[in-house]
Fold this protein.
Amino acid sequence: MLRSLGHVHDMRLVAVRSTSPDEGLVALLVQEGGPSILAVPVSAREGLSLSAEHGSIESWPPLLQRCLEAQGGRLEQVRLGIDDDAVLRADLVLTACQSPGQEDPGCCVPCTPGEALMISSGCGLPVRASDGLLRLRGVDLGEESISDKVARWRQSLSAGSAGIW
């Protein structure tokens, strides 16, 4: 079960990459309008489907969406977060229609992060990530790199020491 998500951030799938021959594949998600990137482990099948040129090559995500709609429900979004043990988790967020014009606040169905990304890709759903997940596992692309920080620090040290000698 996901922790309370607090504020969530819209994410966009940009690529699927191999981390190493032994480690498998990751889907790379970039924060919309923000500096963070997130690597989500996916299986080979999920990676192939997610990297397809025109979205998911799987037929089951749209089928799942049509089944829910036939029962009066709707897939709203997928959410990525962490649980109390800091393990990556995912939920499908569903909205159920009780009567015309009235919607139930919905429920969340747990799934694997790879399944969530495939359903998002196949059904055109937004992907949202929690603050906690981005803090714990996200990489801030706007941050100055360690090598840049060290180079700047060395430069300031050498500039400061030049006046001493």
The mean pLDDT is 82.
